[in-house]
Amino acid sequence: MGFAAAAGRVRRIGAAAVDARTLRAQTLTEIGRVVPFDAYVWALTDPETSVGTDPLAAVPPALMPVLPRLIRLKYLTATNRWTSLTAAARLTEPGASLMWRELLGAHGVTDIASAVFRDRFGCWGFLDLWRAGGVFTGPELAFLDDVTEPLTADLRRCQAGTFTAAGGPSAPGPVVLLLSPDMEVIEQTPQTREHLMRQLPPGAGAEPVPASVYNVAAQLIAAESGVDPQPPSARVHLAAGRWLTLRAARLGAAGRTDAQIAVTIEEASPAARTAVFARAFGLSPRETELLTHLTSGADTRAVATDMFLSPNTVQDHLKSMFAKTGTRNRRTLLSRALGTA
Fold it and tell me: What DSSP line would sit under 217-256, residue for residue?
């Protein structure tokens, strides 16, 4: 089976997908036909902070009990970190990878191929393919590069699609999880389990894995260690048009890296939600600024004055925004951006 034919099938899968989870699952099947792998992690990310939110993963069962450690090491590993990748890359020097040196090498992983899904509107996900025995070849990496750009556009489109439904009722909150310094769950509020079940439904009879929680906590540790300066926060789609914001912070005195970590989960604020909306639909900086003014309730004349534009130019921007978001009027545009009925 040739790489070119497989790339064509991947593009067709992406173009037809209506949600990011189906897109990833079907794409991984096609990738595996030409780039064999033994395990994988494909996470969506907050487009601004690049923090993982919704992982689709299949890792060796022996690693599940140490999942918090695995994620922490992923965020602390600078080698081929998704936040700096510009092309698909492999684990060229195992000794340089903290994740491989301290964990994956002992579990038979011999190579990792990594790809990032990033465009001018943000980072939409990253993919790690693990191989147990042998290494990934140049042609295999070239194939991953070939499909990365169209998949990035399709992932962004799928995220935009989550805004077509009005947000459901807000839950009382915030929801809080308390983690140990090693990211083990110590305690959580009663509503936490329900939120986690909806974010990442587990198999029958299994408890939800707080993967998004681990990711923001790991980003906190990475920021403290000087690996990556982005804030430990991420916005994640829950269901039915609802978006949540996750944040991690240490308890106690500032600078205590041995203190417990609190992760909060709450409804995304209008500003946080609108920012993701603008990126997902590919709004220009000027259109994003206009959307921000509109969410405050300003009319066309007031917006034009604030933005130093003519009312006609504002209307031209609105027409472009309607076309990009699939809306026909200002009311529908704001309803989807803000998650109101």
Answer: HHHHHHHHTTS--S-SEEEEEEETTEEEEEEEEE-SSTT-
Which tokens is 200 given?
A: 């990442």
* pTM score: 0.92
Contacts of 244 (CB under 8 A, 6+ apart): 195, 199, 235, 236, 237, 238, 265, 266, 267, 268
**109 backbone dihedrals φ, ψ, rounded to 5°:** -75, 125
Residue 338 pLDDT greater than 80, yes or no: yes
The angle, 0 to 180 degrees and rounded to 10, between the axes of the packed helices 330-338 and 270-280 is: 110
Strands in 122-131's sheet, in edge-to-edge order, are: 52-58, 39-45, 122-131, 111-119, 89-90
pLDDT digits (tens, 9 = 90+) for 219-246: 999 999 999 999 999 999 988 788 999 9
For residue 12, give both structure tokens. 């067709």
Distance in angstroms (rounded) separating the CA atoms of residues 29 and 17? 14
Tell me the DSSP string of 266-306. Answer: EEPPHHHHHHHHHHHTT--HHHHHHHHHHHTT--HHHHHHH
**Taking the C-alpha atoms of 115, 119, 122 and 128 in order, what is their torsion angle to the nearest 10 degrees?**
-10
User: What DSSP element (H or E) covers 126?
Assistant: strand 122-131
The H or E element containing residue 48 is none
Of 198, 153, 193, whose CA–CA distance to 20 is shortest?
A: 153
CA distance 79 to 285: 32
Q: Report the alpha-carbon distance of residue 46 to residue 234 in Å, rounded.
A: 5
Q: Which residue's entry shows tokens 């009005």?
A: 166
